[in-house]
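REQUEST FORM: STRUCTURE PREDICTION
Request ID: SP-0412
Submitted by: Lab K.M.
Chain count: 1
Length (residues): 188
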Amino acid sequence: MVGLEGFHVIDVSQVAGTVRVVVETPAQQTGCRACGGIAHSHGRREVRLADVPCFGRPVTLIWRKRTWRCAEEKCSTKSFTEQHPDLAGPRALLTVRACWWAINQLRGEHASIAGLARQLGTTWRTVWRSIQPLLKSMAADEGRFTNVSSLGVDEHIWHHVSSKPIDQGGRGTLADAHQRADGLLAAA
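STATUS: Completed
RESULT:
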C-alpha cells in the first residue's frame, strides 16, 4: 500500500485531517551489531515521520521500530534499534522519500519551504534541516555541470541600485539601468 519493501501496514486512519499510517517489519532473528551474537527482542518503540502528502492531506508514518538487547555479558552494546536507511535515517523527522519529494517540489514547482512544511504537516525548520544536507551534497557535486555548455537567465535584468552617479564609479539609478536596457534593445 505504501510502497515500503519489507514493511507491513498495521493501520491506516485519519486523525485531525492527517492520514496516519502505522508500519512495522516482520518478526525475524537478528544479530548484535557489535559482537554478532544473537539479539533478543526488547519490544518496539514508535517513531513518527512526516511522509509524502496523500489525498491532499499530510501523512504521518508511524514506524513501530524493533528494539533489541544483546545477551552477551562482555558485549559493550546492551541494546539497539532497527535501522532502515531507505525509509529514514537515524533521528530523522521526514522519510527519505518525503525529503526527495520536497526537493523536487522546490526545483520543479518553485515551492517555498513554508509551503512544503504546510503540505507535510510539519514546521519550516523540520523541512529545512531534513533537506539541507541533501541540497549541499548536490551542490558540491561537480558532475552536475557535465554536458552544460551555457546557462541563461529568464528575461530579467539584475541591477543593484547605487546612489553614486555612473561617472563617479557607481552603477547608477534603476532609471539608468532601464535606459541602458532600452538602448541595447533598440540596437538589436
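NOTES: The first helix runs from residue 96 to 109.
Reviewed by: T.R.
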